[in-house]
Amino acid sequence: MALALALEESLQRTTVEEIFAGGLHEYLTEFITATNAIGLEIRREYL
């Protein structure tokens, strides 16, 4: 749950300008990594 809340907070506070300043590819890579971690946490809890 903490991972999902952290991702939600990040999505709410990050602007498009910040994403492009840091690099779109880098941002998307971090996003995919975070969603993968959430998926693994869900799998551990419920499967």
Can you describe this structure?
This protein is mainly α. Helices cover 89% and strands 0% of the residues. The protein has helices at 2-13, 16-22, 24-46. The longest helix is centred in the last third of the chain and has 23 residues, at 24-46.
- Care to count the β-strands? 0
Radius of gyration: 12 Å
The profile of the biggest β sheet is: none
* Range of strand content: under 5%
How far apart the termini lie comes to: 16 Å
Mean of residue pLDDT?
Answer: 97
Low-confidence stretches are none
**Overall geometry:** elongated
Count of structural domains: 1
Q: What is the helix/strand order?
A: HHH
User: Helix share of residues?
Assistant: over 70%
The class by helix and strand makeup works out as mainly alpha
| Structure annotation, total helices | 3
How would you summarize what this structure contains?
The chain has 47 residues and is mainly alpha-helical. 89% of the residues lie in helices and 0% in strands.
Topology, pairings included?
Elements: H1 2-13, H2 16-22, H3 24-46
Descriptive terms for the model:
single chain, 47 residues, mainly alpha, 3 helices, elongated
